[in-house]
Amino acid sequence: MNSRDTILQRLRNRGGGKLTAPECDFSVLKRPHSSVAEQVDQFQKTIDSVHGEVHRCTPESWIAQLAEILSSRGARNLLIPAKHQIGHAMRDSKRDDLPELLIYDEPINSWQPHLFNEVDASITSTRGGIADTGSLILWPTVDEPRLMSLVPPIHIAVLEASELYTTFHEAMGAQNWAAGMPTNALLISGPSKTADIEQTLAYGVHGPKELIILVIE
Q: What gap in Å lies between CA 204 and CA 154, rounded to an integer?
């Protein structure tokens, strides 16, 4: 019997032979119900505090607002997913005020040099957002790999207002994460940031220098 088995046996002997896990109490994580408008307001307030940028749009206006945002940044190109409806919508819009659209339709190995050296901005979908922390939920796919949101200087994320949750716990429960998850999930709160030994916080040092969120209301 090894040390682990010895310790477990002692615990069993003290508990009458059975080991039972304590009941889970998540009540501390629950928040009062709030409307979609209140969640959007809270999300925007929180994300603004960490240098993120929120633009409230409609299903009809978001591409036009995106074009204005990219123009103001002088973006030369925008990386879009090949299969997701966001990519289809942008290609179908045929707007001449959008920068060059780069379609992610090759293996990631062939895209890496472009991502790190040539792509000015990328756009991805989201799985939802967390109002309390101002966080985006992304589940990367083959069509939208995580490098799309972690490498280009400008990351633009499209978030449906109806997919905002008050807390992380609420999001996991509502979306039934227990039924299955991807190999990695991303929680993004603002652009990249780091702090040196003197605890001076700096933004945009590695990864995206800007996080721009289009909230579709």
A: 10
Query: Residue written as tokens 């928040």?
Result: 31
* Secondary structure E strands in the chain: 53-57, 77-81, 100-104, 121-125, 128-130, 135-138, 154-160, 164-165, 186-188, 193-195, 201-203, 210-216
Are 175 and 119 spatial neighbours (Cβ–Cβ below 8 Å)? no
Measured from the Cβ of residue 186, the count of other Cβ atoms closer than 10 Å reads 17
The per-residue pLDDT for range 58-102, each reduced to its tens digit, is 999 999 999 999 999 999 999 999 999 999 999 999 999 999 999
6 falls within a domain = no
Query: Is position 180 within any domain?
Result: yes
The model's pTM is 0.83
Residue 60 lies in a domain: yes
DSSP bridge pairs for 157: 124, 213
Residue with tokens 């995106």: 66
CATH (domain of 69)? 3.40.50.10420
Domain range for 145: 32-192+199-216
Number of domains in the chain: 1
**8 A C-beta contact, residue 90 and residue 98:** yes
